[in-house]
Amino acid sequence: MTDIKVTLINTLKDIDPLTWDQCACPETKNGARPLDPFTTFRFLFALEESKSVGENTGWVPNYLIASRKSSVLGVMPLYLKGHSQGEYIFDHNWAQAYSQAGGHYYPKFQIAVPFTPVSGRRLLVKPGHESSVSEALIGAAKQIAIDNQVSSIHFTFCADCEVELAEKWQMLGRKSLQYHWLNNSYRDFEDFLSNLSSRKRKAIKKERRVALQFGGEISQFSGTDITPNLWDSFWKFYQDTGARKWGVPYLKRSFFDIVQEKMRDDVLLVMAHRDGKYIAGALNFIGRDTLFGRYWGCNEDHSCLHYELCYYQAIDYALSQQLKKVEAGAQGEHKLARGYMPAITNSMHWFLDKKFHSAVERYLNEERSIIHDQYNHILIDGPFKKE
Fold first, then answer.
1. Same domain, yes or no: 52 and 153
2. Is residue 207 located within the same domain as residue 155?
3. Given phi > 0 = left and psi -120 to 50 = alpha, else beta, which region is 107?
4. If DSSP codes are grouped into helix, strand and coil, which group holds residue 318?
5. Is 70 exceeded by the pLDDT of residue 245?
6. Residue 328 within a domain
7. Integer Cα distance of 133 and 144 in angstroms
8. Could you please report the per-residue DSSP string of 241-271?
9. Mean pLDDT of 207-231
10. What angle do CA 309, 310, 316 make, to 5 degrees?
11. Is the pLDDT of residue 42 over 70?
12. What is the number of H-type helices and E-type strands within the chain?
């Protein structure tokens, strides 16, 4: 019988920030960057403190804390969901099918970082305790769902190393595609271009020239270079994109103020400006080896400016900082033409209703085959020179 105790808290105010981070990002103990900043206390608490998650948002925190005696060994970012927005692994069809069959799909549990399609650990366990504590966390989540008749658990953008454990707990695997730029030890942008086919190389050079025809300049800001007025401009861009994509932007204005105060060193802002006025911007977060593109917006439309700010400037920064990868967010096959290659991501799913669980399993078996075929086809048809 395990001596690990799992408790539930509804706010990160109930756990010491250092204790959380010792589980979430142990690689930072000597001052290094986290692999990604999204499971850090500062990021998740910024979501909570800004009320981007919480009551009336459809994302209610139910963080799990695993302890042995008085020592915290692992944590889990678990949320009770009242809808399927902000997840980037789409299950609206499942919700509709279950509702039509007379079931209640919501509420459901989401083991995830809200609004963040970035793969990484979700079972945040101190080194040396991975097996037993991970089992305790996922077992507790499942038991809480059963006890409270929560319809399902969705373990999204989990790390590859967590898939086998989730399968052991009868969770169903789902594959999705993203597009990532990989730094194959390129000396500079021209060296990267030299590895592309002639047609793609010419197209990218043309797009970069066209992007600059808006008549201004593009600047990168990070750390102390980021000033509050930059967030004022970016908030307007974000609102415009959010209104068009989701109807209502997910993040509250105060989230960006908290990022300015607590996370400037984790951020790269790429801003286009002309005559002292910002007209477009892209928000990236910086990991130890990876740049993560998250949001973009503008208040003027200019050809190719989106590609320049989101994709090519990100590559420029990754090259300058010797980062290994740029992750450009969810979906988007158009990224392939910009040198971003397909990458398979994992999510795991469990349903309380056994018949529905079996139905989803059959669906995922078919979908998984389609995703793998699509992945292999894209690899063959990619933008790089053929050997």
1. yes
2. no
3. beta
4. helix
5. no
6. no
7. 16
8. HHHHHTSS-SS-HHHHHHHHHH-GGGEEEEE
9. 97
10. 75
11. yes
12. 12, 15
Structure-token pair, residue 77: 């970012």
* Cross-strand bridge partners of residue 173: 348
Instruction: Kindly tell me if the per-residue pLDDT of 35 is higher than 60.
Output: yes
- CB atoms near residue 28 (< 10 Å): 16
The pLDDT value given to residue 1: 42
Answer whether residue 96 is part of any domain.
yes
Whether 217 and 68 map to the same domain: the answer is: no
Q: Are residues 49 and 162 in the same domain?
A: yes
In degrees rounded to 5, what are phi and psi of residue 219? -130, 150
| DSSP string for 337-384 | GGTPEEEEEEEEEEESSHHHHHHHHHHHHHHHHHHHHHHHHHHHT-SB
CATH code, domain with 256: 3.40.630.30
Would the pLDDT of 279 be above 50? yes
Q: Which residues constitute the domain of residue 192? A: 184-323
Q: Say whether 37 sits in a helix, a strand or coil.
A: coil
- Count of other CB atoms within 10 angstroms of residue 232: 12
User: Which DSSP symbol is given to 14?
Assistant: G
